[in-house]
Amino acid sequence: MTTLPAPTAAVVRPDAEDTPIPRAKAEAAAEFEPLPLGQRVVNLIFILVPLCALVWAVVYAWGRGVGWTELGLMFGFYILTGFGITVGYHRLFTHKSFRTGKIMTTIFGVLGSMASEGPILTWVANHRCHHQHSDNDQDPHSPHSHGSGFKGLVKGFFMSHMGWLVFGKRRDLHRYVPDLEADPLVSMLSRTFLVWMALSLLLPGVIGGLITMSWWGALMGFVWGGLIRIAVVHHITWSVNSVCHIWGSRPFESRDESRNNAIVGVLALGEGWHNNHHAFPTSARHGLKWWQFDSSYLLIKGMQKLGLAWDIKVPSAERMAKKAIA
Questions:
Q1: Torsions phi, psi for 181 (to 5 deg)
Q2: Which candidate, 110, 254, 266, 263, places its Cα nearest to that of 195?
Q3: Residue 260, SS3?
Q4: Cys-Cys crosslink for 135: which of 146, 224, 256, 294, Cβ 3.0 to 4.6 Å?
């Protein structure tokens, strides 16, 4: 089985022991212009439409309740697409925390795309940019550097959570993903993002219609398993950018304000142990303590037992002790 290509040693970050991902050159000042109007409009639609669907569904369900079919579709697609982001987009494609073959690469690429957070290359490039500039002025979504006091906190939270998608700055993201652009499979999956996003909306509707044998069931499946599920996945993912850079604990040294947050840790399928992740970016395991539940790592370990994942990176006890804050 073929695997994702290893990053070129000549372009790794200075702390390559922890983060062997392609390092971009310093951005030019012209790249920090406002995002193009079309991109801002599209991102705003992606933010608002699922939220409007959630508001409509809550108003409609008031006094009527929500059926098990709708809740099952929402939860089921949340788990599937959530793992597509956490295991696929993040730990496999961005940080190369483990290796796998073409079939699993395709599955995670499709599931991550179905989360509707953007094409693989764009998502990975933004996240690698975040790690290279974490919590400084060039970070795409830091809650800091937005002023002091309560006003600065509110603005920083909003900008890091979702404001950056509308009011952010233009960047040459290609420079962050030369390894993935060179991979034909990953490039193809990234180019066909709209196909997989559409599938993530249509499939819950089809399933809901078949279960209930009604057009209304199909509509409810589309709304709950599609639109509302997208809203839930989006805001849980964005909470890693916002909540986990403001509130939580910092057991390890890192050059930013990343935090471990237990609530986000569980809801985001292990991603909320964010200080652990920034201290050891290539680790496939984010919940480094026995009590830090990390369902994404459990999935990766399960894949390993089935022979579907190998070369799983986890920091040694010595490395963790070296970075631990007394």
A1: -65, -30
A2: 110
A3: strand
A4: 256
d(C-alpha 51, C-alpha 81), whole Å: 18
**Which of 211, 215, 216, 237 is closest to 46 using CA atoms?**
237
Q: Is the distance from CB of 205 to CB of 221 less than 8 angstroms?
A: yes
Rounded distance between C-alpha atoms, residue 80 and residue 268, angstroms: 12
- Residues 326 and 253: their CA atoms lie apart, in Å, by 10
Q: Where do the structural domains in the chain lie, given as residue ranges?
A: 34-239
pLDDT at residue 144, as a whole number: 94
| C-beta atoms surrounding 49 within 10 Å | 13
Q: Return the half-sphere exposure (C-beta side, CA atoms, 13 A cut-off) of residue 28.
A: 4
Please list the residues that pair with 47 across neighbouring strands.
Answer: none
Q: So what's the pLDDT on residue 209?
A: 97
Q: What amino acid occupies position 177?
A: V
CA distance 84 to 90: 9
- How far is it, in rounded angstroms, from Cα 293 to Cα 16? 27
**Selection from 103, 99, 16, 128 nearest residue 313 by Cα:** 99
Residue 274 exposure: Cα atoms within 13 Å on the Cβ side: 30
Cα-based distances in Å from 59 to 53, 55, 66, 67, 235: 10, 6, 11, 15, 20
CB 187 within 8 A of CB 121: yes
Alpha carbon 98 to its chain centroid, in Å, reads: 17
Please work out, in degrees rounded to the nearest 5, the angle formed at the alpha carbon of residue 232 by the alpha carbons of 231 and 233: 95
Q: In this structure, what is the dihedral angle of CA atoms 289, 81, 133, 6, given to the nearest 10 degrees?
A: 80
Q: Where are the alpha helices (DSSP H) in 86-192?
A: 102-114, 120-132, 149-158, 164-167, 178-181, 184-191
Mean pLDDT by 10 residues, the chain (326 residues): 38 41 56 82 93 90 86 97 98 98 98 97 96 92 90 95 92 91 98 97 97 95 96 97 97 96 98 98 97 98 98 97 90
Taking the C-alpha atoms of residue 110 and residue 233, their distance in angstroms, rounded to an integer, is 15
